[in-house]
Amino acid sequence: MDPTARTRVLPIDPHDLDSQIVRVAAEVIRRGGLVAFPTETVYGLGANALDEEAVRGIFDAKGRPAGNPLIVHAVGEGMVRQVVADWPPLAHSLAERFWPGAITLVLPKGPAISGIVTGGGDTVAVRWPGHPVAQALIRETGLPIAAPSANRSSELSPTLAEHVERSLGGRIDVILDGGPTANGIESTVLDLTSDPPTVLRPGPISIAELERVVGKVGRGSGGSITGRAPSPGMLARHYAPRTPIELCADSSELDDRIRKESGSGRRVGVIGIGSDGGSATEFIRMPADPQVYGARLYAVLHDLDARGFDCIFVEMPPDTDAWVAIRDRLTRAGSPR
């Protein structure tokens, strides 16, 4: 897309869908264009998953490394079967329990899916999103839609349409503004080609929930991936604001860091749970509930990033399974550039 062009922002009510707006966006997808749309996790940047040139447009708009695969979004098992080579009973069980919803399954890719979608690999990540706008768009196009998060590569994922416009305005055709997303962090990714199945990216569906369906699951090592990744969201630096982030192990370390910073003249934003923020320029106390924290995290980071702070200090949440997805996102956001 011509970077001097304007991106159309089309408001749409998830609870009272305007079929004409959905048709407009679907036609953009069918003719090979790019549409940002809300899911229950974050906003995605969608293109026809069966059109190589359209998918290449996603990588160009985002500046995304070619080895970082995309998630293919579909509605219904029939559409999923168009893009996978195998649909084992375990995939069916997981789909029955968690779809539509915030879990992505990694399976052998079918011949309809180009290697550009999979980062050159022989597996494809698939998801049936739960958001009504995402579902309506996929149904109207009648096509599986490849869609990573709608932001420049490695930067903060968007949870509002204005985040998308700030990052990709002029680079894509349409943004469907369906308001804030609910979960706020990206889907759980489960690799069903390994034994046992392996969580490649933690997310809103917890390991405990998965194990009630799957039995024992493995945990991917993540962060050191630098070449072709088996799943989206596994690069060492990801989900990062432009403002440097410093991670503190607990509230005591955070308070000590704030005291040392006092009088430096730097403007520091602070995100904490147990700390009171001390002399920080701006302190944001986050909820002690991991689900509520996750729903707010990116919006808070976007806000601090837009306000020109010199640095953002973040108190890491507890090192427990309930917080594993939040800690994953913060660790990657704070990884060296």
Average the pLDDT over all residues and give the rounded result: 92
The number of distinct β-strands equals: 15
The biggest beta sheet, please?
11 strands, mixed
SS-based structural class? alpha/beta
* Shape, principal axes of CA atoms: globular
- The low-pLDDT segments are none
Q: What is the H/E string?
A: EHEEHEHHEEHEHEEEHEEHEEHEH
Task: Report strand order across the widest sheet.
Answer: 1-8-2-3-7-4-6-5-9-10-11
Radius of gyration: 20 Å
Strand content: 15-25%
How far apart the termini lie comes to: 28 Å
Helix segment tally? 10
- Share of helical residues: 25-40%
Q: Can you tell me about this structure?
A:
This protein has helices spanning about 20-30, 50-60, 75-80, 90-100, 130-140, 160-170, 205-215, 250-260, 290-305, 325-335, and strands at about 10, 35-40, 45-50, 70-75, 105-110, 125, 145, 175, 190, 200, 220, 245-250, 270, 280-285, 310-315. A hairpin with a 6-residue loop joins strand 9 (about 190) and strand 10 (about 200). With about 325 residues, it is α/β, with parallel strands linked by helices. It is built from ten helices and 15 strands. The strands form two sheets. It has an eleven-stranded mixed β-sheet with strand order 1-8-2-3-7-4-6-5-9-10-11, sandwiched between helices. Strands 12-15-13-14 form a four-stranded parallel β-sheet, sandwiched between helices.
